[in-house]
Specification:
Layout lengths: L1 E2 L8 H8 L5 E9 L1 H10 L3 H15 L5 E4 L2 E4 L4 E7 L5 E3 L8 H16 L13 E6 L22 E4 L3 E3 L2 E11 L5 H15 L4
Helix pairs in contact: 3-5
Length: about 210
């Protein structure tokens, strides 16, 4: 973990501009094709959700600006971005997880399963450990949405990317997943979101 040299950053003026806004976040929704990942999960008996979340985390960790966080008046650059996602309980409530990212799917999956077990055996909303070096994500598998809005805490310096994944839909021979992403414009532009979706699709198209 290190700090960004804001004074010599080519986005210095953009950073300052968007920090003056009451709500500097922006979000969009796009479909990604998950046909190969869906088939891979089916063949291996893995959770499809964990498979595509792992691909998502690979993409997040490949985009420099998605690893930036505003802390006080500094911009922290995290070496690794971990995962924080909602985990459902049988009674329809949920808890927030926090677990370490690994490029190795088996390690990542085990980390998730341990958090899932913790949440399903407790009533706690928040995880016992947390860092801003993560993303917040949730699955909304009941609705194939085309728009999405995240709750706003009122903290305009909140800079943890927020993602949501919708209900699968079929288009001819393709299986599509709606993905919403919400980011702080002081740190992230449309270009970086485009990089994320490009890398995410590349990871989803891989067959490991």
């Amino acid at each position: 973990m290190k700090y960004l040299d804001i004074e010599n950053w080519n986005r210095k003026e953009l950073f300052k501009h968007f920090r003056t806004m009451a709500d500097p976040t922006f979000g969009l929704v796009a479909d990604v094709e998950v046909s190969k990942t869906y088939q891979l999960a089916k063949e291996k008996g893995d959770s499809f959700f964990v498979r595509y979340l792992h691909a998502c985390m690979k993409a997040i960790n490949s985009v420099e600006n998605l690893k930036y966080r505003i802390e006080d008046d500094k911009v922290t650059i995290y070496d690794v971005i971990n995962a924080s996602t909602t985990v459902a309980r049988p009674d329809t409530t949920f808890g927030f997880s926090y677990f370490d990212y690994s490029e190795d799917f088996e390690v990542f999956n085990q980390n998730y399963l341990e958090e899932k077990e913790r949440i399903q055996n407790s009533t706690n909303l928040l995880p016992p450990r947390y860092s801003l070096g993560c993303i917040h994500s949730s699955a909304i598998p009941w609705v194939s949405f085309t728009g999405h809005k995240e709750p706003f805490s009122g903290n305009k310096d909140n800079s943890v990317p927020q993602l949501a994944f919708g209900k699968l839909k079929k288009e001819k021979e393709k299986i599509l997943l709606p993905v919403a992403i919400n980011v702080n414009h002081a740190l992230v532009d449309g270009y970086h979101v485009g990089q994320f979706f490009e890398k995410f699709q590349q990871e989803l198209d891989k067959i490991d």
